[in-house]
């Protein structure tokens, strides 16, 4: 129990050292800080975020400097948000990426001996009124890092025009097709868009595959074009699950791997069984990435095994009932 509680408290201590100084100075233990901080939604923080975007440099939300804003993808709620980001947080996200590949190698040996064809794209960026750059998280990461084992040149990934970027990435992947052992993209929709692009523009991409692509069926085409591919990675959960049947059609038996659980706001954890079926996906939270708290959900809503979207209120104190990570129980 000591070890299970150590890392959440360690993470909370790191967070509260810069955001709960006033509470700590009054003598409250570091891990008790969460008890005096209310559970909030993004809308509750938006006025403070707007102040930072306007150029307020005071430590409104964090004593660390806000280096840039990441704009959320909108895949969950449909609307993008401005997420304040620090340099330390960016480095923490790189850590999870570094953990993912050794895990993948345990299930797919020799992934590091070939090349990865990852379809990665740069989205537009802008500056807020206060001069802080705002851009999607993936653009932040791609501008800072480039894997030399990718088939795509960095210039193609950073190209803001989606057509030449996609064309170049596919062309480079086809030219190195025997070296490709790993295919992927961030989202299942991006992966499917790449295959549809290939289906539409194959004649322009490579004459060598013309006869193969003239067939009526494209079933399993990816395995024929990139015969040494061991797996395909992309987010296939949530709203992306609708693309799984089409991906399975094109990839014909290649494992669909969704190994990282992440959002624009935070990276969460890893899938420790990456070769499982998309329908059986589960993730292990890494307790040092963030301080995790959970809301109790109401299952007694007149329907068996249906979870209500309404959180349970603690009527005695008129507060949301918050559960720490180590106290979460199944069921």
Features:
single chain; 331 residues; alpha/beta; four-stranded mixed beta sheet; four-stranded parallel beta sheet; 11 helices; 16% strand
Folded structure, characterized:
InterPro entries: GH3. GO terms for molecular function: indole-3-acetic acid amido synthetase activity. Helix 11 links the parallel strand 7 and strand 8. About 7% of the residues have low confidence. This protein has a four-stranded mixed β-sheet. A four-stranded parallel β-sheet has the order 3-6-7-8. A three-stranded antiparallel β-sheet has the order 9-10-11, with helices on one face. The protein has 331 residues and is an alpha/beta fold. Helix 7 packs across helix 8 and helix 8 crosses helix 11. It has a domain of 164 residues. Helices cover 36% and strands 16% of the residues.
Q: What structural class should be given to the helix and strand makeup? A: alpha/beta
- Number of distinct helices: 11
Q: Give the SSE order as H and E letters.
A: HHHEEHEEEHHHEHHHEHEEEEEEEE
Low-confidence stretches: 22-27, 302-317
Number of strands: 15
The biggest sheet amounts to: 4 strands, mixed
Helix content: 25-40%
Quaternary: single chain
**Whole-number average pLDDT?**
80
Distance between the termini: 21 Å
GO cellular component, one term: cytoplasm
Pfam families: GH3 (PF03321)
InterPro entries: GH3
GO molecular function: indole-3-acetic acid amido synthetase activity
């Amino acid at each position: 129990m000591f070890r299970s509680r150590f890392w959440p408290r360690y993470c909370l201590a790191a967070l509260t050292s810069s955001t709960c100084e006033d509470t700590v100075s009054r003598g409250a233990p570091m891990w008790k800080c969460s008890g005096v901080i209310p559970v909030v939604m993004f809308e509750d923080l938006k006025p403070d975020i707007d102040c930072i975007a306007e150029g307020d440099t005071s430590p409104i939300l964090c004593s660390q400097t806000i280096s840039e804003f990441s704009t959320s993808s909108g895949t969950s709620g449909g609307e993008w948000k401005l997420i304040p980001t620090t340099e330390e947080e960016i480095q923490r996200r790189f850590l999870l990426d570094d953990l993912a590949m050794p895990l993948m190698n345990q299930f797919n040996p020799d992934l590091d001996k070939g090349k990865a064809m990852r379809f990665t794209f740069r989205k537009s960026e802008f500056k807020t009124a206060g001069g802080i750059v705002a851009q999607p998280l993936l653009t932040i990461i791609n501008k800072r890092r480039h894997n030399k084992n990718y088939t795509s040149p960095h210039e193609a990934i950073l190209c803001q025009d989606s057509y030449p970027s996609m064309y170049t990435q596919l062309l480079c992947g086809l030219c190195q097709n025997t070296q490709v052992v790993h295919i992927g993209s961030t989202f299942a929709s991006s992966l499917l868009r790449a295959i549809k692009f290939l289906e539409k523009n194959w004649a322009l991409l490579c004459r060598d595959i013309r006869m193969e692509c003239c067939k009526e069926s494209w079933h399993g085409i990816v395995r024929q074009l990139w015969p040494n591919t061991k797996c395909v990675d992309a987010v296939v959960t949530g709203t992306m699950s609708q693309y799984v049947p089409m991906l399975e059609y094109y990839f014909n038996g290649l494992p669909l791997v969704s190994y990282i659980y992440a959002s624009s706001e935070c990276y969460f954890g890893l899938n420790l069984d990456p070769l499982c079926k998309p329908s059986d996906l589960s993730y292990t939270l890494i307790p040092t990435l963030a301080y995790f708290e959970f809301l109790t959900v109401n299952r007694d809503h007149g329907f068996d095994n249906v979870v209500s979207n309404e959180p349970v209120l603690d009527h005695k104190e008129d507060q949301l009932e918050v559960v720490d990570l180590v106290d979460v129980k199944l069921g």
